[in-house]
Amino acid sequence: MLYKRGKTWWISFTTPNGQRIRRSAGTTEKAQAEELHDSLKAQAWRQVQLGDRPAYTWDDAGVRWLDEKAHKASLVTDEIFLAWLQDHFRGVPLRDLNRDRIMTVLQIKKTQTSASTANHYMALIRSMLRAAVEWGWLDYPPLLRPYPTPTQRVRWLTPEQAVLLLNELPPHLRDMAAFSLATGLRRSNVTGLEWSQLDLGRKIAWIHADQAKARKPITVPLDDVAISILRAQIGNHPIYVFTYCGKRVTQVNTKAWKKALERAGIENFRWHDLRHTWASWHIQAGTPLNTLQDLGGWHSSEMVRKYAHLSPEHLAQYAQNAGQNLQPAYGTKLSQPHLVEEAKRTVTS
Questions:
Q1: Can you give the residue ranges of the Tyr recombinase domain (predicted)?
Q2: 159-308 carries CATH number 3.30.565.10
Q3: For a Cys staple, 89 with which of 6, 46, 58, 60, CB 3.0–4.6 Å?
């Protein structure tokens, strides 16, 4: 049946399986409301009697995705991505989201930003459509291939460059940057660090599971530099460790940060690269990859292996494992310089 609320028509009917449908027709025109009413009623009949799948839309998938992924550390990023995608996919049935349609939209994002950014949007779309298959809303997702992107090098500072940068930063940013270099903590964990997360006597800090990117708690050992920085903040704020003019610092990518980079002569460097620098220093000092993974709170070893090339020394002890099989034939002779030439002459003759 149809009825009015104010000037807007509403629809109400019962499906063949007893489900009550009540919703706004979104129109003040009775003829349009009747058309939508008949369409919805017919669709409900086909779903029950013929087993047709409901025509779920991109909007339906977005709402369910955000509800199921409410625990994600990167949910804010997903919301930003979805807000942009909504302008292009609003009301589109999931079964109509084929590869060509999706890639046309992603090409717009690629043109506006970069291939790498477009790939991030693609990853979200791919995850949502795979989830739709699991929900029974879609038979299969379209095949989406990421855009090729140049391999990114790990950006890190030498100790000398780090000192130059710290000396150019204002005091509150200098302390936060130095603490990041000493602990490897992510930006949000530093800006949101509370005194309740510290035990200066035991020299540890901890990041709660809901604050960690991998959603697992992290115990952070504190060295003497970190302890010294923390002690200097005592009395500034009752809750937060790092503050400016009595308030918690929330933004670090400021003009002061950028100007300090310029004065220090450091290019192409982000705040997150402080974490890369910390990890790189650890690897170069001989910290094992599995230990670094625990220290940094990475959820997989693959995230840590990108630093492995910075310390080839850890492979040296294994370098002899293959060559030692040749020792009976070449080892003794080739260890004596005057026999090396003899061996070469034997091979070439």
A1: 152-320
A2: no
A3: 58
Give, in order, the Cα–Cα distances in Å from 73 to each of 38, 210, 283.
43, 7, 27
Residues written for the chain: 349
Vertex 310 angle, CA 309 and 316, to 5°:
70
Q: Is 298 a catalytic residue?
A: yes
Whether 307 is catalytic:
yes
- Decide if 186 is catalytic: yes
- The active-site residue out of 110, 275, 276, 282 is 275
Rounded CA separation 310/227 (Å): 28
For 183-231, what is each residue's pLDDT tens digit? 999 999 999 999 999 999 999 999 988 787 767 788 999 999 999 999 9
Measured over the CA atoms of residue 161, residue 165, residue 171 and residue 176, the dihedral's sign is negative
Instruction: Measure the CA–CA gap between 192 and 26, rounded to whole angstroms.
Output: 44
Q: Is 330 part of the annotated catalytic residue set? A: no
Which tokens in the block code for residue 85? 């995608």
Classify the phi-psi angles of 198: left when phi > 0, otherwise alpha if psi is within -120 to 50, otherwise beta.
beta
Select from 8, 13, 2, 1 the least CA-distant residue to 26: 8
Cα dihedral 279, 281, 285, 289, rounded to 10, equals 10
Exactly one of 186, 187, 276, 282 is catalytic; which is it? 186
213, 248, 270, 306: the active-site residue: 213
pLDDT of residue 47: 65
Q: Which of 67, 22, 9, 21 is nearest to 47 (CA)?
A: 21
Q: In this predicted model, what pLDDT tens digit does every residue of 32-53 receive, in sequence order?
A: 889 888 887 887 776 666 665 6
Residue type, 259: K
pTM: 0.59
